[in-house]
Automatic annotation (TrEMBL):
Protein name: G domain-containing protein
Residues covered by the G domain: 99-218
Signal in keyword set: yes
Lineage: Eukaryota, Haptista, Haptophyta, Prymnesiophyceae, Isochrysidales
Statement: the UniProt record of this protein carries the keyword ATP-binding: no
Pfam annotation, one family: MMR_HSR1
PANTHER family: ENGB-TYPE G DOMAIN-CONTAINING PROTEIN, MSS1/TRME-RELATED GTP-BINDING PROTEIN
Keywords from the named record: Signal
Ranges in a coiled coil: none
GO molecular function, one term: GTP binding
Length: 310
């Protein structure tokens, strides 16, 4: 009985390329050499192994149905650090749906993107404020663009001058000019108070017509804080969430998020955001996306307080 010995396909990861450079996917096939005839038991073992590989391959093919995969996401990065580069980047990627990600420095914005894509450092995450200094468009699997926007100055007002003079105008240019944007994921550390800069920025975003989905990050940090405060994680989460909602007068869709993959909650939150990305990307405009998110939020409010609508 001949054992099934599939060839192994080695695919190199797409590297971050400068603006306008073509993305090249290089693949090589390594043929498997055949050794001496093996025993029936060994052949059966090889057949089982082959079936496992085929099952994994089938799962991978099934994974290709989604914009963002669970494995081997191919990412090309266009870093647009000037108005002219941004215009060129928008033009180059205008046929794909865009989901942009914004938030204060160190709120977990870039970590969220890396977690969604299952990449180590595609988005430049750092504990140093101002690591993202450009509008970084991440073309994912040639089907979607996830844009990492420069971080707002954090509460200690680091890089505030750079934000006012350069990064904010560049960000607003992208929001106004890129009609392919479907929605913004605004990432906010659930433990932080809302600053005046956040309120001002989100008012600017509202004027562009880009709808916002609020992502409350660092949720896993609440457990220790709740224990120190003598309360439960759920009670602390509710209290801090409501403080954010009141400060922003926000009634839209929100998601609690953590990048800790060891937690089932984190894996579920990733799937939830990816479902929203799929649904929003299937729409044709930011106006349709805004209506979609309003409908989702209304349903959630109705479900949370059914007595008011009976």
């Amino acid at each position: 009985m001949a054992a099934c010995r599939p060839s192994v396909l080695l695919v190199t990861q797409l590297l971050s390329l400068p603006l306008g450079s073509p993305a090249i996917l290089r693949a090589s096939v390594q043929p498997t050499s055949y050794g001496p005839r093996r025993s029936l038991a060994a052949s059966r073992s090889a057949s089982v192994h082959c079936s496992a590989i085929q099952t994994a391959a089938e799962k991978e093919l099934d994974d290709d149905r989604f914009l963002v995969r669970n494995v081997r996401n191919d990412v090309r990065v266009l870093r647009c650090g000037s108005s002219q580069m941004l215009e060129q980047g928008i033009l180059e990627l205008q046929e794909l749906p865009h989901i942009c990600v914004a938030g204060e420095s160190n709120a977990g914005k870039s970590s969220l993107i890396n977690h969604l894509l299952k990449k180590q450092n595609v988005a430049r995450a750092s504990s140093v404020a101002g690591k993202t200094r450009s509008v970084d468009m991440l073309e994912v699997n040639e089907r979607l663009v996830i844009t990492d926007l420069p971080g707002l100055p954090s509460r200690d007002h680091q890089v505030e001058r750079m934000w006012d003079s350069s990064w904010r105008p560049l960000t607003l240019q992208y929001l106004r000019d890129c009609r392919a944007i479907r929605a913004m994921l605004y990432v906010h550390d659930i433990r932080w108070k809302i600053s005046y800069m956040i309120r001002d920025f989100l008012r600017d975003v509202e004027e562009t017509g880009v709808p916002v989905l609020l992502v409350l990050s660092k949720d896993d940090k609440l457990l220790v804080e709740a224990e120190n405060m003598g309360t439960t994680q759920h009670e602390l989460r509710t209290k801090m969430s409501n403080a954010v909602f009141r400060a922003l007068s926000y009634q839209g869709v929100h998601i609690h998020y953590s990048c800790d993959n060891s937690l089932p909650f984190s894996r579920n939150a990733r799937r939830q955001i990816l479902r929203y990305i799929e649904q929003l990307s299937a729409l044709s405009s930011r106006e349709e996306s805004a209506q979609f998110l309003e409908d989702v939020a209304a349903k959630k409010r109705s479900k949370a307080s059914p007595g008011k609508n009976s």
